[in-house]
């Protein structure tokens, strides 16, 4: 089920891994949190194939990594308006929710890929290498933003 931030937090067990997902046209970037949900780490990138196979691959990923909930990048336009890509990600999230029965949170991902691309450029990573890791890093960036927000919410 897809939740707002407050309800999502209420659904979470005390400990357990969260997954971050960056839904791209050609790849799915995946990230994992540690069990205490402090740090997000880029994990892998899955090449997109067919929609149903992509959903199945994510469900398998959840099982293999003992994921208790997931954060999905929400690609709002720069002005905060939901565009065509949001419709696609919503369909992806709705289908994933039906298949996995796991709490999901849509998280604003504006500029996540650009931030990671800049970091890689500053680190001297060549363009061909950047393309291979950017979606996983963007997923980690998205997940880390959500983890930081959830931690602040628990402290308030």
CATH superfamily: YqgF/RNase H-like domain
Number of helices: 5
Order of helices and strands: EHEEEHEHEHH
Name of the CATH architecture: 2-Layer Sandwich
User: Main sheet, how many strands, which sense, barrel?
Assistant: 6 strands, mixed
Structure overview:
This protein is an alpha/beta fold and 156 residues long. It has one domain: Nucleotidyltransferase, domain 5. The chain is 50% helix and 24% strand. The protein has 5 helices and 6 strands; from the N terminus they run βαβββαβαβαα. It has helices at residues 5-11, 51-64, 84-100, 112-122, 127-155, and strands spanning 2-3, 17-23, 27-33, 40-47, 67-74, 104-108. Strands 1-6-5-2-3-4 form a 6-stranded mixed β-sheet. α2 (51-64) packs across α3. The longest helix has 29 residues, at 127-155. The protein is globular. The mean pLDDT is 87.
Provide tags for this entry.
single chain, 156 residues, alpha/beta, Nucleotidyltransferase, domain 5, 6-stranded mixed sheet, 6 strands
Kindly summarize this structure in a few lines.
The protein has 156 residues and is of the alpha/beta class. The chain has helices at 5-11, 51-64, 84-100, 112-122, 127-155; strands spanning 2-3, 17-23, 27-33, 40-47, 67-74, 104-108. The chain has a 6-stranded mixed beta sheet.
């Amino acid at each position: 089920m897809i939740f707002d931030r407050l309800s999502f937090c209420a659904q979470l067990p005390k400990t357990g891994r969260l997954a971050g997902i960056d839904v791209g046209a050609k790849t799915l970037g995946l990230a994992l949190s540690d069990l205490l949900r402090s740090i997000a780490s880029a994990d892998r990138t899955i090449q997109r194939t067919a929609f149903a196979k992509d959903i199945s691959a994510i469900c398998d990923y959840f099982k293999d990594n003992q994921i208790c909930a997931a954060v999905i990048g929400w690609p709002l336009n720069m002005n905060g308006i939901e565009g065509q890509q949001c419709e696609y990600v919503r369909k992806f999230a709705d289908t994933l929710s039906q298949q996995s029965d796991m709490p999901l949170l849509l998280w604003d991902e504006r500029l996540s890929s650009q931030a990671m691309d800049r970091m890689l450029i500053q680190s001297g990573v060549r363009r061909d290498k950047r393309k291979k890791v950017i979606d996983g890093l963007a997923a980690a960036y998205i997940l880390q933003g959500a983890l930081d927000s959830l931690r602040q919410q628990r402290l308030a």
